[in-house]
UniProtKB/TrEMBL annotation:
This is Uncharacterized protein. The lineage of its organism: Archaea, Thermoproteota, Thermoprotei, Desulfurococcales, Desulfurococcaceae.
Length: 333
């Protein structure tokens, strides 16, 4: 199946929100993998798409429609990611995210007993872990010389800032080796995409190319779903209908119309119970207006669901999110 590969040339800087607080109390939520909005936005910039919408959410819908037109796509445009790691000249087997900090080969997932067999996985090199580090940068400012003329950038004295860098370790025979990742997305478009593009924060660069990946055939989306057992590869957005929602009740949440049952994050030991987690994530940065898109609730990557075909049509915003890869699913059985 046609796939687009995003291969970072340097450690990525991805987080769900800026770092806040002093050193000893600072909090940061580094992301295990790029948000679909990051991927779609980077692709849009690569093919020269310009957005006119003033609203950051409507701009997302506009981006999807222009990508469909420019690349001759069907919805969903993107599904994924699958991940591979390299600590040398070759790439590991394909992995999926099983939590916000770990990846595992699908062959390590026991879909009958619903657990991740880490022992056998580590022996065969089918596990990888996120090891984020915090880096420091110097705040720069650009002085305007006169109207319409841009001055040079200078360091703003006394201003430093922190940002996360995503480092990954490949686990084999219980030894961890630093590795670089590449992210593989099923591409439902006729046009090829290739080149180098800014990807994520801090001006990081990634190589992008189109290829064929057999494993991508197992990827699907709520927009093109068949009944079965799936693991989520990307966040599954949830839009509560009740401000006082305390439990995951299907009738009070928009975004679970395709799910018959949410099983949750799989345990690492046989016999333990899967856990359902709901987290808040931001929808990325809207470059047109230089503002952050709103945050939403979501089931994290690695959540296992029993799914069925959509019971009713979804709204334009949810359709746009699904179209660029939110709620991407990998079939377990």
């Amino acid at each position: 199946m046609r796939a687009i590969v995003v291969e970072p040339l340097e450690p990525l800087s991805l987080s769900s929100a800026p770092i806040t607080g002093v050193d000893t109390l600072a909090s940061v939520n580094p992301l295990l993998l790029p948000l679909p909005t990051t991927v779609a936005g980077a692709l849009g910039a690569l093919v020269g798409i310009r957005l006119a919408s003033e609203d950051p959410v409507k701009g997302l819908v506009e981006l999807v429609e222009k990508l469909v037109e420019r690349l001759r796509c069907r919805k969903p445009l993107l599904m994924g990611p699958l991940i591979q790691f390299s600590s040398g000249d070759s790439w590991s087997e394909t992995m999926v995210s099983v939590s916000w900090s770990e990846f595992a080969s699908p062959l390590c997932i026991d879909s009958s007993s619903l657990f991740i067999d880490l022992v056998n996985c580590a022996n065969r090199g089918g596990i990888a872990k996120l090891k984020p580090v915090i880096a420091y940068g110097v705040h720069l400012e650009r002085n305007a010389i006169e109207a319409g003329v841009v001055g040079e950038k200078k360091a703003k004295i006394g201003y430093l800032y922190r940002y996360p860098l995503l480092m990954y370790n490949l686990v084999s025979q219980y030894r961890e080796t630093p590795a670089r990742p590449r992210f593989i997305y099923a591409l439902n478009c006729d046009e090829d995409v290739g080149g180098y593009m800014r990807f994520g924060g801090e001006g990081r660069i990634a190589k992008v190319y189109t290829t064929s990946v057999d494993e991508a055939r197992r990827l699907t989306s709520p927009l093109s779903l068949r009944p079965g057992l799936y693991i989520a590869l990307s966040p599954v957005p949830l839009l509560p209908l009740d401000k006082l929602l305390l439990y995951l009740e299907f009738e009070k949440v928009v975004g679970l119309e395709f799910a018959r049952e949410v099983i949750g994050l799989l345990p690492k030991e046989r016999g333990r119970t899967p856990k359902i987690a709901v987290e808040g994530i931001g929808l990325g940065f809207y470059e047109v207006k230089r503002v952050r898109r709103p945050a939403v609730l979501a089931l994290p990557p690695g959540t296992v669901v029993k799914a069925e075909s959509l019971s009713r049509p979804v709204g334009p915003v949810l359709e746009a999110l699904y179209s660029i890869g939110f709620a991407s699913l990998y079939q377990l059985k």
